[in-house]
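Researcher: I'd like a candidate sequence for this fold, 193 residues long. If you have to choose between options at a position, lean toward the conservative one.
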């Protein structure tokens, strides 16, 4: 079994209030708070993970540098600096706020401009509010249609996952998927075996 040590910088992007900080805190500390405290500029944190590819008999020890970018428009100029060196992104929208899905195009463009065509996944967060809670959540078909249009327009494949930072649903899984995509990309580019 071969083991490699790697550092991957990840950026969390998406509109203000969609749950980027909450997803990060759930992943890092297994914690959640209902208090909303807006991110100013960006927050940084690190976490070590182990990603296994049994089919290739490979294990990668990865240090994630997680940069949680402020979603509000007025932080746009500050954000540009924090994309530098990002190896992948988690593009987050709020399932209860339709416009946060459509704004993802702006976020993905900002990612490409500042970090290049790095792997990313789309996260529909606050899934817990979509179970008979009276919220008009964006339907799967509408999400798939919009993401399909983006795939065609920008010529990339988009992976999509629903999460709940509140209950921890799929949060670890989301960070695992993006890590594996980055590993695959590195292998494809000959940067990694
Ligand atoms: P900015 O810092 O402005 O960019 O916001 P953000 O995207 O980091 O959002 P944040 O994590 O601060 O969450 C905003 C609000 O949504 C907070 O009140 C959270 O408690 C709440 N929230 C986040 N994730 C979830 C979730 O999965 N379910 C529910 N019900 N509430 C959530």
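Model: Candidate sequence:
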């Amino acid at each position: 079994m071969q083991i490699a040590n790697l550092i991957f910088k990840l950026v969390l992007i998406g509109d203000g209030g969609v749950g980027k900080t909450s997803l990060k805190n759930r992943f890092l500390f297994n914690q959640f708070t209902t208090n909303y405290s807006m991110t100013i500029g960006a927050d940084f944190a690190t976490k070590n993970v182990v990603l296994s590819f049994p089919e290739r008999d490979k294990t990668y020890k990865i240090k994630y540098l997680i940069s949680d970018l402020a979603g509000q428009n007025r932080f746009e100029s500050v954000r540009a600096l924090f994309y530098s060196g990002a190896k992948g992104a988690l593009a987050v929208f709020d399932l209860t706020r339709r416009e946060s899905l459509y704004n993802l195009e702006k976020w993905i463009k900002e990612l490409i401009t500042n970090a290049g065509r790095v792997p990313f996944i789309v996260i529909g967060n606050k899934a817990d509010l979509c179970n008979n809670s009276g919220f008009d959540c964006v339907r799967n078909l509408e999400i798939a249609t919009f993401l399909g249009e983006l795939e065609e327009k920008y010529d990339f494949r988009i992976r999509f996952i629903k999460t709940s930072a509140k209950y921890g649903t799929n949060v670890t899984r989301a960070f695992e998927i993006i890590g594996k995509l980055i590993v695959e990309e590195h292998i494809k580019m000959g940067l990694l075996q």
